[in-house]
Amino acid sequence: MAYTKNTDLAKNHLEQAWILSENINNFDDVKFDTASLLAQLYQQQDQSSLAKPVLRKAIELSQHNVYWHCKLLFQLAQTHATDKEYTLASELLAVGVESTDESNATYLKSLFLLSRAMIMMIERKTNDVLAILSQASPIIDHSIQNFHLKEYLKVFFYVLQVCHYLQLGQVKTVKTSLKMLQQSIQTIIAPNWPSDEQIFGQNNTEMFMWLPKEQLYVLVYLVTVSHSMMAGYMDKAQKYTEKALTQIEKLKSQENKPILAVFQIILLEHIIMCRLVMGNKSLAIKEIALAKDVCLSSTNKFLLKKHAPQLHCLLGLYAMSTSLFEHAEKQFYSCIQETTERELKLFANLNLAIVYLRTKREQDLRNILEQIQQENSQCSNSQALMGSFYYVQGLNAFHKSSFHEAKRFLRETLKMANAEDLNRLTSCSLVLLSHVFLSIGNSKESMNMVTPAMQLASKIPDIHVQLWGSAILKDLHRMLKEPTQEIEAYNNHVNFSQNLIADQLKCTKFPEHALINWFQGDPPLPMLSQDLLVQPSATIVAPVASGSGVPIVVQQQQQQQPAGTYVRLPGTLNQQVMFQ
After folding, report:
1. What are 104-138's pLDDT values in tens digits?
2. What are phi and psi for residue 553, nearest 5 degrees?
3. What is the pTM for the complete model shown?
4. CA–CA dist 390, 396 (Å, integer)
């Protein structure tokens, strides 16, 4: 199993060892290590149905041994989570909480509680997540005596709490937890902090760990990037993404563990959306191609299976930003067909609605808005996504010249955006409201809306809102007979427009641009012939971009790290949980 590729022979030996050792007393290490390894081997061969009974039998036999009982419970919970059997995984983790309570293994109890909270997040059981985190918090604060173990648990806890708030689009609410998480990681990466081997090698009930501190460091960057994206601070998101990618390359040079590729792909998904918002499509398509290569290079193309819908969505946003609406539609449709995650589907549908709006397909637009309304009326969605839904409805009403209706929808969007500091949603809503007021001849209110919109757009920076806002300002200053300001606004508008068009034309020269023609199956290698590339028009349209999230990992100390199982968190393009 360790040194050859002869899995059949490995399986044969392990099956014999399990049969021979199953009924031998006082033989725990051999017996349960055999069960654990055999289950791992079955899973590597996509035979989880064979792994589960072995692990269940081993759990039944190991109740007297806290270490093995807990290890096997974690492993079987992971197996069920891999198969999306979340209720069974949650029940096993609840058993772990009870058994560690009886044996007074407080540290392990905390790990089981936090792992169960992750499963609840995957199942979108918001109230249950809060209840479990509330149960875990006092245990971590008051019952864990070992300072180093306490700090690791705090990082685990704060990452979950931050992800929970971000998946609900609560960018403002999350700030305190994010700050606490950043303080904890600074403590752990300090030069005087002991090695992981020293911390987790004291006794067998403390030999379970979360991520190694070097990977935790990357993870905290990732969470911070997610927050910056949702809050609309693209410069910050870019800065932290670059730092995290540098750290990943450093870790890869030491040991290229599969989770590093997971971190890399999620960071790339973030940075691509940043580029599109900032009007840098030429870098975005290069990075989409890099993300595709990372997925293809993973073992058994595992990452491609999990991230193909996101890649299609990113290509849809890219095609949309270059006004290739037919390609954008097909990419969003591919994303919707391939994903089982409600939030990603909603995100793609909202952008598809804008495509229908821009291509004047009123019936398709009406159908998709009704579908979104029906599918999400009873669901708890991200504040950012629901605000975006109101924004799209406002945009539709504006195009139909239903200005009163447009104002109603956009005020709802602004209320949601302002409550949680969703700056990009605020700037988009303000500039559209300004256009609504301009259309009904209310220059004063129009100016009151476009001025803060432009200030926010400059801070983000969002070149599409700046382009739109400068056009409105030009018309407003003309109405107010202010020729100097009108010329200034016109020059700004021309500048923004020329920058976008120049970047747009640059994209067509890249072979990576041909990726917009990939709609199903494995993505192709770059196409070098310029004849195969689709040329965009010179019209600029801004996609609805959004924020995203972060993976979470549980592993046992000194275990070889498998590829893991990735499950989408409620959120936007790439909010994910990794439970391992």
Report:
1. 899 999 999 999 999 999 888 889 999 999 999 99
2. -135, 135
3. 0.86
4. 10
